[in-house]
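Service request form, structural biology core

Requester: graduate student, group of Dr. S.
Request type: structure prediction, single chain
Budget code: on file
Notes: please return the result as structure tokens.

Sequence provided:
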Amino acid sequence: MTAVPIANYVNALDMGKAHHRAWLQAALEELVKLKPDALDREGSLHSVWSAAVPASPVTEKRPWHTLAVPYYSQRDSATGQSYRMCFSSSCAMLVNFLRPGALGGPNGDDQYLRTVESYGDTTDAQAQLRALAKYGVKARFVQDADFRLIQTQIARGVPVPCGYLHRGPIDSPSGGGHWLIVTGVPDAKNIIVNDPFGEPDLLSGATLSSSGKGLVLTRENFGRRWMVEAIGGGAYRYAPGRGWAIVAEP
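Core staff response, request fulfilled:
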């Protein structure tokens, strides 16, 4: 069977017909799943859609999403681990969003931490994965994440815990590492995060406040702390595509 060029369908679209609009909507949704940035203004297909249906609100639909992920602060922990449980607090937010009711109360991250500690330390990625599985969340730990992966996960309705270097100046990040959870991709330049410790100053490496819910961070600055690789002597360099993340199934 000879494939029919997609442009033939686009050229025949009649946005006044409900079944044509439904076809376009379905096509766009499938396209975004496979290639999240395909409908960006800079994307290769944006001009095709806009030329075919310039007045349609569907044409202007962006694959940007923000998820309403409940917030946990590691600072209010009653476990004595508040200074080092960022990984657990971030994964607890993931659990609370994907499995509502699995963790109870405003300190559900304390409950989650106890589960993690039954498998290992809060800093141990494998212990985190086993704890997530205990709550019915299938996930994997990766060290080759980038913003495309984040955007794909958010489009699937899954927030993304990410580990990054939060101390030192942005051109020379340092520290033992810190975890937050990405909850949204509002546009091509920013991400939205819940940071369990508070608001980071990505330029200086300081913490600006204890309020870390719904923060907007630039991809440029976060990326230089998130996608890094060690070069020896406690130093790191920017390494696109080398981000640490927990990639969960819906």
